[in-house]
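DATA SHEET
Item: assembly model
Revision: 1
Owner: S.N.
Input lines:
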Amino acid sequence: MIRFILLQNRQGKTRLAKYYVPLEESEKHKVEYEVHRLVVNRDPKFTNFVEFRTHKVIYRRYAGLFFSMCVDITDNELAYLECIHLFVEILDHFFSNVCELDLVFNFHKVYLILDEFILAGELQETSKKAIIERMGELEKQE
Amino acid sequence: MNPFSSGTRLRDMIRSIRACKTAAEERAVVRKECAAIRSAVSENDNDYRHRNLAKLMFIHMLGYPTHFGQMECLKLIASSGFPEKRIGYLGLMLLLDERQEVLMLVTNSVKQDLNHSNQYIVGLALCALGNICSAEMARDLAPEVERLLQSRDPNIRKKAALCSIRIVKKVPDLAENFMSPAAVLLKEKHHGVLITGLQLCTDLCKVSEEALDYFRKKCTEGLVKVLKDVVNSPYAPEYDIAGITDPFLHIRLLRLLRILGHGDADASDSMNDILAQVATKTETNKNAGNAILYECVQTIMSIEDNSGLRVLAINILGRFLSNRDNNIRYVALNMLMKAIQVDAQAVQRHRATILECVKDLDASIRKRALELIYLLVNETNVKPLTKELIDYLEVSDEEFKGDLTAKICSIVEKFSPEKIWYIDQMLKVLSEAGNYVKNEVWHALIVVISNASDLHGYTVRSLFKAFQTSGDQESLVRVAVWCIGEYGEMLVNNIGMLDIEDPVTVTESDAVDVLEIVMKRHTSEIDTREMSLIALLKLSSRFPACSERIRDIIVQNKGSLVLELQQRSIEFNSIVAKHQNIRSALVERMPVLDETTYSGKRPGTLPATGSTSTGASLNIPNGVAKSALPLVDLLDLGSDDAPPPSSSGGDFLNDLLGIGVSPTPSMSGSSKSPTKGTDVLLDLLSIGTPPAQNNFSNDLLSMSTNNGPSFSSLERTQSLSSQVSSPPGAAPMMDLLDSLSPTVSMTSNSLADMNLTGDNGLVHQPIVAFQSKSLKIMFSFSKKPGSPQTTLITATFTNLSSNDYTEFLFQAAVPKFVQLQLETASSNTLPASGNGSITQTLSVTNSQQGQKALAMRLRVQYKVNGEEGLELGQVNNFPHGL
């Protein structure tokens, strides 16, 4: 199960933080700080997995943005790595060539996309096309 | 009206925040915005509520407090339009979680939305419920969710499935309601619904044994078929990742099959073919394919035995391990750890590769590999593996050294084939990374050294050499200091040279140099200095030529700011200067430390009674000083913590006897405070409460009065003023023990009086206090009318065996409410076959006479034909009223 998903830039500014387990606000800030420190300076040749407390963080870097997922120790690391990539592809498709600023100004839409992709810490939909179409329908509701 | 397209205030706010150059500026902007939102909240502004909440979410993401917006979420959720509800639910998930009580208020709105005619609104409600619902909400809303699992809209079905996972995790009792709807989901063609259905079944199996059986019986066949279809499906652009159709679905299927196959031969059997197909046919040049293989290997390892499949799995892991992608190697190491239980031999084949991984630059890989190596070590490969690891220790990162050292030490302790190898390896580790070595590790090393009498010389010389090159490693220094103190003469005289050794010339003053460096170096920890001070005292007796120089070094600490050092310095100085005659007895070599007791003690704390048997293996020579030492071992006195300085006689005596700071390696860890140690001692001997330590010292002395001439006479001087036979050494000893309180001498005096006047108290029947095959102890009692609480016990010892007992020593311990004094025994030799006896008088004062009965623990040791004998017993049959 995914415990939380973080989207941070190189400076450690959080662009998206989704928690599927309840944490105190102060604890969330600590987690965000620690995860950023763990992933920011790792050599790109290193594994995309770091142990974090009793769990592990699967992260992937896209330009200046780090996508991190904290998952259970028994979860399939490679699958979550693929999962991050799929999420990025969806974002890229939705914003057509996504950049950090898109995510800043449309943060609420990013959350909406994420809610169509992952729910209760589990994968909800694996088709990029289905999610993009669903987003189109939701936008029509506005 | 769309809040984000018209009147772009959210955009404006984000812009102005981004334009801030300093944190202070940003805070000012945020403060202003928050103030505006607060006033809008208090005015109950409807038009801009969702825009305000959106702003608030952004502010929240920046890390500012936004609790005042929580009620706004609820209002938005309760409003009718989709845009308001959307922002409301989003705010609910971001700003609140299951622990807030406000959440209770939203249950009703969520319930209404779950029944809404607009499927998008139902979707919003399911999403929020799935992400943050509490156990109460789960109970309240489970029927709605269950119904939605059968909704016509696949988007609702998949959301409801994941929502159900949250519900059964919160309330496992509800699992059975979801079993049959979940099974229906497994027949879906829609990937989204199928994948969420699989996940729901997996989680149901985890919370309910019943669900597991149900799915195993009903769904295994179907799932195998689904997996077959997916694996063999033609190209599907919608789900294609690197040429594989929906790897996520593959993985979910394999995972559920793993749970169903685990522990069930039939289910396992039915999935063999498809697993073999996945394991052989999956593309391995992309991450997605490897993810499937990884999952497949895990499933093969978990389901019931099929050797063919396992070979396949191990081969895949072998390929993974040699992959150039670090991620793949990482998961391979992870998997091998599980495979080791299935096929240790197959994993051993990859040892060399795994060892390489320990040296990887990437900490994640190193850590995995080290754990794995640790599992791989056995008696046959321990030597080469340890060598590799120690070699690597020299070049490894500082941050990795702690883990690595701990593992090496653990391996060496566990698998060491011989003592010399153990000592060699530990010395290497100590020299390389002594600062990372935990206390219990070097304590254990000292126990081993102490037991390897043929290696004492070799060890102390190796340590001396190691100190010259690695003197900055604290643990190494401590072990070296201890060994030099104990075996100093072997260092200088090259005693016990092994063939492998190069002879070294070390003078007495070289050895003292080491201790002096340790004493004076400002980086030495206080404990190390304390150990060094004791080693110096020991050397002063072993190297008479250096005695003066040693005294100078000791004296230099007279003004130390550390009380412990100061006190020891003054005491030791006085021993060196004034008590030459007892010094050599005081600083005798430590008796051999018992390995089994020590290793037994390490995991937990030591029960006081259990330790009594330790004495059995200890070689106790004559004399109080020495007989006290095993007692210390026995009692597990902490030594590397500085004992709190105390002026009471008991403590002082302890220190005098080398108990205090001396590196008694029998302690179980540094955490144990010496005060506690004393308590244990008191407990064992049960002599009054801690303040009454005078009695304790008295007892300690009297325990072996029949052996050590100087001490026994001292004791006599102390307790029986009528007997004056003190040899020259006794008088100064009195000075050392001057803190013994007058109460003791008073009781002793009255005791003496009593002895002189004879027994004229009440007479109780004698009892057999102890009887074994070899020994019988009789107690007879007498009372003195003046002091009803005090009983005089005359113990008569009879030897029932056919051999004479020599060096006979009787010790006794009583509960805390009783005070005990032992008089000198009539002899320390007990003739065989009852041809004579020893008598010894005990005086016990029961402070709770009439309320609590007297009880006593006995310990008798003696020598039979030069061999140690030990008897332990307990006396519970004292006459009533004593």
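QC remark: The CA atoms of residues 104 and 668 of chain B lie 52 Å apart.
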